[in-house]
Design brief:
Largest sheet: 6 strands, antiparallel
Number of strands: 9
Radius of gyration: 18 Å
Order of helices and strands: HHHEEEEEHEHHHEHHEEHH
Shape: globular
Amino acid sequence: MLKAHSLQPNQEMRFPPMWGEHAISALHTPRQNRLLAALPEEDYERLLPELEFVTLPQGLSVHGAGVREKYLYFVTEGIVSRFYIMKNGALAESALTGREGVIGIAAFLGGESTPSQAVVLSTGHAYRLRADLLNSEFKHGCPLQQMLLLYTQALITQVAQTAVCNRHHSVEQQLCRWLLLCLDRLTSNRLDMTQELIANMLGVRREGVTEAAGRLQAAGVIQYCRGHITVLDRPKLEQRVCECYAVVRKEMDRLLPDEITN
């Protein structure tokens, strides 16, 4: 099961110390996030002083179920998983977020919290913004508001397609979809994920993931060893995946721009 650093309700999350200012500016910028990269220069510069750089170690709970979301986290590296935990302890993932998106949509949709949790699946970084500052920006109908709403639409598509995929497609197809979604959010073809973790995210038995991963490895698509999955042949992986991956990918590309618009 995914082990998250637990937080009590209303407890503020404490992040690891930030790097030196010069190191941060040299290696990380808010423009590495797709939403912030799309902002006009004037709006980006106005927002820049309010963005706080934070590290996202694997297993960190960005927000818990039912906890008020005080910040938005614009991911620049890594993967954050959104999932639900049932009363019996079982869990299932509803969506993945990487540099294309943001964590904390309840903060600007007005609900303040959600019944899902958001936990770091792959170590990375983000820039966080206080929710009250964002609400102030929204009053002026800023471009960021439009970008966040477009991202929310893309996220809804991912959540809905995940439900369809889990209901109608094989474990192997689900695994292929999940691997491709992860690859789209990483800078390498290697994932540090155990089969048990993947099974928890997909909401299936570990044995099913083991069999599916074995078939993919035998076909030369992936290599699996001690919690590390390396994708050897992405085109073959895309050939074996169901249509759900393409639906999610196309909608994300349709709604969100790739280039900085100044």
